[in-house]
Amino acid sequence: MGLYSERVLPRISHVACGSKKVEPLRRRVCEDLSGDVVEIGFGSGHNVPFYPATVTRVAAVEPSNVGWKLAGKRLRAATVPVERSGLDGQLLPFADNSFDAAVSSWTLCTIPDVDAALRELRRVLKPGGALRFIEHGLAPDERVRRRQRRLEPLWTRVAGGCHLTRPIVDLLTTAGFTITELDVFYEEGAPKFAGADSLGTAVSP
Known about the structure:
The chain is built from seven helices and seven strands, in the order ααββααββαβααββ. It is an alpha/beta fold. A seven-stranded mixed beta sheet has the order 3-2-1-4-5-7-6, with helices on both faces. It starts with a helix and ends with a strand.
């Protein structure tokens, strides 16, 4: 990783993903979770305050040491156990059927091999385990999609590999998940090309 990706981008993400406006979305993703949870793209821990007491532990998968350091304050205040347990969502260091649930928040846009990451989540989730997600990706409107396609080459370079046009629901269903809840909307306060969000639950058979 270069200096920009290793030292600067985690700090940008820390600020950009820490907006008060998205806290209700994080709360929706984390509500009703229970048991052992794996979170990919943990970042600087913005979901931590929203994990309910019914969660017994969170295995945090995060490649950035800077991101993990920035999570320190939230980790110290956490009411559920959180451990940094992996670095790469594409190759999870867990046994099959290890987790009751998984969480991914604005992560699938950036993982280089998103199909591999979703296969890994399927592998480590128990049968019937749920992936709770909030992701941005391909917009529902063709006008916005055209803008996303124009901007993506530059956006991907400056935003650490973040893609604007990944079809989140298609990726999940192709990986074998069943979508049981889904809300598609434009995120308040964000430009439409970067704020076309999908929030929901995908269950592993």
